[in-house]
Design goal:
18% strand; 27 helices; Rossmann fold; transport; binds ligand MGD; Dimethylsulfoxide Reductase, domain 2; Phosphorylase Kinase, domain 1; binds iron/sulfur cluster; metal-binding; seven-stranded mixed beta sheet; 31 strands; alpha/beta; binds molybdenum atom
């Protein structure tokens, strides 16, 4: 039996076009769609069986209740018991179950033979994957095979992937798309505090007086959490300050929007520190007791050269040295560069400086996808450390995650090349500890990290990597400077396995496509932004031969001869895998709640110690791991002190010039999840946002005589694409800037983005490159 996946994709694209032609207005009335579906005979919901799960989509981690009847999920509501969302959901949450029912769900494995995809059984497909991996290792060595996963992997998926590749095969070729997303948050935390993940939690929202959003569009990207900020404003009159490079729906809801030039957040943050120190707002007792000052290397490049190596060399400095450094960042000096008025810089600083105000900073990709991302993370921590506004209710620098399990599966499980579940591969004790739990010889674990994500795709292009297994991510839409990496992946002698639930541009380049069981079609766990681990049970049967990503990996591991390490007795393996995984994190600093607890409540925050969650880490009042006898203990650092970093302003990797006079920034919209593979198959979401566009500032549009809907050609040094214009619609960029969302695989903005990255975190800067803008 032959089935071409391309036929499916053509059908999908055709259907998208038909739906786009329908008026957007219809999309505003979901009732129309549901009525249509109801006619097709959706059950009436009289005998619904409700079960809890974390939402499939974003890192907020809302609790949802899913109603199933006759083996189908037919209703969703917010879980009123969840402390995260207290019964509320956003549009994606409410429509989440529909993402499982797209007509072209992958149901059978497909193997490419003579340029066509041939259906095969799961057993044969897994045999092929295992033998291909073994063959590649034999011919090209263990570092020629790799796995590229995701912050949408469940915790068990990531755990078994790491165990198979790092522990059994012995290669550190394990990366995840969180490298494109949260890697900078990790290096920010590690350099400032020595331990990853926020010290505070969502409850901070209930106590903070001022919220500073550092270039994130919470109204669209973390909608339910944002509604908690709005709720506090109604109740207590708190202030929401939107500090951003463009006006968004978040700006519309904020009390004040301050627009700055891209990349200059570095300078403004330093100016805030200058103001704090020079106005006597520093919490001297806190700084003397709990902080050190440090500086690192500067001019570290932009990761653009292949094989680029950079190692930071931190050096202690004195407070006086740090204070002298800040003289370059007076509000007056920074104002011209940043485009922010002196008054607004002082306004921002005064909120942090006021001893009677509790301040919560929130950020996401504006600060992380930044060629100096680690630095800007450090700088925001500096502000909170200088004022002592940290690790206590309402005083909270809070780095938000994007994906449902970016924290749970990538940061906590450690599915990055240099990481282990507990610790790093370079550390002998950490290797010994992991090897013992994994039941492998310690020599198996290679002490040297191999490739981070961008380098991994460069290695695939060069031929150093020959085999790549891609799970729960769609890199052929989401890699920066995409064309180069697509051409590389398609070269002769590369073998690509893709596990997905729908055909995508990434399955288009696959040699084997494995259909996956999605979300509640299997059992799993996610970990959200506030260190909350949440469990979900299997509620539905996966379609056709679809298997969970965990089981796919285990089956291949067994075929490769690792039966002993992957011998799990219970049927879905999740219970055993999770309790094995928990052993890596035992102790007061990171203990995870047992599965029985997670089965009965909407998640628990780690460190989970003596049956209790730790809400504020490093604060002796709340955190049992504090042992220095003081009020705060930053125990991630050997001397118990957090680091205030001297980090200068440096320009972006590519800035507008005469040939490419605009900034190009990219990002998201509320209706779609990343590459739209799921949300574009939900009619109501697709119709509300049928295709990508380019946002222009109204003055630029007028000068070029461009109106909404006109085609605009964007050209960068990497190539060109054309998209319809959007003027004064949802978002408005600053003059000489354009913004494009990346959800639309038919208008691949990443074909023209730049693959520069923060040399410390290796996270690409998707927010900045230079572009020429013309009416097409
Ligand atoms: N609806 C929906 N929600 C999502 C997602 C989704 O796909 N759809 N994805 C999830 C994921 S994985 C993520 S990572 C998050 C992303 O959430 P966000 O980071 O909030 O969203 P983005 O649209 O990526 O970021 C755009 C913002 O970057 C800021 N920016 C641009 N340049 C700079 C700069 O130089 N400095 C600073 N500080 N800011 C700058 C701009 O102000 C702009 O509004 O959303 C999560 N939530
Ligand atoms: N230009 C630009 N590019 C960006 C960004 C940006 O801001 N601008 N942001 C970056 C960031 S922060 C992120 S997080 C990435 C996201 O980038 P990706 O992870 O590449 O995008 P997704 O669409 O989330 O891909 C998830 C894939 O998993 C599939 N899937 C869903 N459920 C399952 C399952 O249970 N099992 C399996 N095997 N597959 C499943 C979906 O169909 C989809 O194809 O994009 C990055 N790329
Ligand atoms: S805010 Fe995020 S987690 Fe909550 S319902 Fe929306 S997409 Fe789901
Ligand atoms: Mo992300």
């Amino acid at each position: 039996m032959y089935q071409s996946v391309f036929t499916n994709r053509r059908e999908f694209i055709k259907k998208m076009a038909v739906l786009s032609a329908m008026t957007a207005a219809a999309g505003m009335f979901p009732g129309i769609i549901f009525a249509e579906e109801q006619e097709k005979g959706i059950p009436d919901g009289a005998n619904l069986d409700w079960k809890k799960a974390p939402c499939r989509f974003c890192g907020v981690g809302c609790g949802v209740l899913i109603g199933t009847e006759n083996g189908k999920a037919i209703a969703v509501k917010g879980d009123p018991k969840s402390p995260v969302n207290k019964g509320l959901c956003c549009v994606k949450g409410y429509h989440s179950i529909m993402a499982m029912y797209g007509k072209d769900r992958l149901k059978k494995p497909l193997v490419k033979k003579n340029g066509r995809y041939v259906e095969t059984s799961m057993k044969e497909a897994l045999d092929l994957v295992a033998s291909k991996m073994q063959e590649t290792i034999k011919e090209h060595g263990k570092d020629a095979v790799s796995i590229y996963g995701s912050g949408q992997w469940t915790i068990p998926d990531g755990y078994v992937a790491s165990k198979l590749f790092k522990g059994c095969i012995g290669t550190n070729n394990v990366e995840a798309n969180a490298r494109l997303c949260m890697a900078t948050a990790v290096t920010g935390f590690l350099s400032s505090f020595g331990l990853d993940e926020p010290m505070g939690c969502y409850e901070d929202i209930d106590y903070a007086d001022t919220f500073v959003l550092w270039g994130n569009n919470m109204a669209e990207m973390h909608p339910v959490l944002f509604s908690r900020l709005l709720d506090q404003r109604l109740k207590r009159g708190v202030k929401i300050i939107d500090f951003a490079t463009r006006t968004t729906r978040t700006s519309m809801a904020a009390d004040k929007t301050i627009i700055f030039n891209p990349q200059t957040d570095l300078a403004v943050a330093n100016a805030i520190c200058y103001e704090i120190i020079n106005n006597g707002w520093m919490n001297t007792a806190f700084v003397e007791e709990h902080c050190n000052f440090s500086k690192g290397l500067t001019n570290m490049g932009y990761g653009l050269e292949d094989h680029y190596k950079f190692t930071d060399r931190p050096e202690a400095i004195s407070f006086e040295e740090y204070k002298a450094f800040l003289e370059d960042y007076t509000p007056e000096k920074v104002s011209g560069l940043s485009g922010v008025s002196v008054k607004d810089i002082k306004y921002l600083a005064a909120h942090f400086g006021d001893p009677n105000k509790k301040v919560m900073s929130l950020w996401c990709m504006g600060m992380n996808q930044h060629s100096r991302g680690t630095w800007i993370n450090n700088l925001v921590y500096n502000i909170h450390l200088l004022t002592g506004k940290i690790s206590s209710p309402g005083n909270s620098p809070f780095s938000l995650t994007g994906q449902p399990s970016a924290c749970g599966t990538v940061r906590e499980v450690g599915t990055l090349t240099h990481k282990l579940p507990h610790g790093v591969v370079a550390n002998k004790e950490h290797r010994e500890f992991a090897a013992k739990i994994w039941d492998v010889p310690v020599e198996n674990i290679d002490p040297k990290p191999t490739y981070h994500t961008v380098e991994m795709f460069r290695a695939l292009d060069r031929g150093d990597i020959r085999f790549m297994w891609i799970q729960v991510t769609n890199p052929m839409v989401t890699m920066p400077k995409l064309k180069r990496y697509r051409d590389g992946a398609k070269k002769e002698g590369r073998f690509i396995v893709v596990s997905d639930v729908y055909p995508t541009p990434t399955t288009d380049i696959a040699d084997v496509i494995l259909p996956s069981a999605m979300w509640v079609e299997r059992e799993g766990l996610y970990g959200n932004s506030e260190r909350r681990t949440q469990y979900f049970e299997q509620m539905l049967e996966p379609p056709g031969e679809a298997l969970s990503d965990t089981v796919q990996l285990i089956e291949v591991a067994k075929r490769m001869g690792f039966e002993k390490q992957f011998y799990y007795k219970d049927e879905t393996h999740i219970e055993e895998i999770y309790s094995e995984y928990r052993r890596h994190h035992e102790g007061k600093k990171h203990n995870m709640a047992p599965l029985e607890v997670l089965k009965n409540q909407p998640g628990a925050m780690w460190p989970y110690v003596d049956g209790k969650e730790t809400k504020w880490r490093f604060n002796a009042k709340y955190d049992p791991a504090c042992t220095n006898g003081k009020d705060f203990h930053f125990y991630g650092k050997k001397d118990g002190r957090a680091v205030i970093w001297q980090r200068p302003y440096e320009p972006a990797a590519e800035e507008p010039d005469a040939d490419y006079p605009f900034w190009l920034g990219t990002g998201r919209v509320v209706e779609h999840w990343h590459t739209g593979s799921m949300t574009r198959r939900i009619p109501v979401l697709h119709q509300a946002m049928p295709h990508a566009y380019v946002e222009l500032h109204p003055e630029d549009a007028e000068r070029m005589q461009i109106r909404t809907g006109d085609m605009v050609k964007l050209t960068t040094r990497r190539g060109e694409i054309s998209l319809p214009a959007s003027v004064n619609q949802r978002g408005v960029p600053a003059p000489r800037q354009v913004f494009v969302p990346f959800f639309d695989e038919q208008m691949l903005i990443n074909d023209i983005t730049l693959d520069s990255f923060c040399p410390i975190s290796k996270e690409p800067d998707y927010k900045k490159c230079a572009v020429k803008v013309e009416k097409a």
